Amino acid sequence: MPSTGTCGFGTTFKGTTAGTVAQVRDIRGPNQTAEDVDISNNDSTSGYKEFVKGMIDGGEVTLDLVYKSAEGTRAETALATTTEDAWTITLPEGSKWVFNGYVKGWTFDTPYRGEITCSLTLKVNGVPDFQAAV
Questions:
Q1: Which pTM value belongs to this model?
Q2: Is 125 inside a domain boundary?
Q3: If pLDDT is split at 50, 70 and 90, which confidence band does 129 have?
């Protein structure tokens, strides 16, 4: 059976208000996780903790970007506000992640022998929606 896969080149990241984020290299997330709720008690006969699945955290999305002064200004402005945006990650084959979220943080890296890059972290608020390509 031949291998299948999709190259990430051409993926876009866009906010309804913020517009398209330029010069994106890598996108990680949303990294969703469910909480573990400990329901262990004195009647737990095995002596092992018992758990049930709790609430799900929509996670975070991190973008690695080639730094531009304008993007730094936009990131700093977004970080200073409490406003969230509707974000869309569009994969080259047409699948999408759509979620609401706010800019949680940003950082940049200035290696003396390389280009300046920055990372932008967004907190997903609510349910991220994966829409498969048709």
A1: 0.86
A2: yes
A3: very high
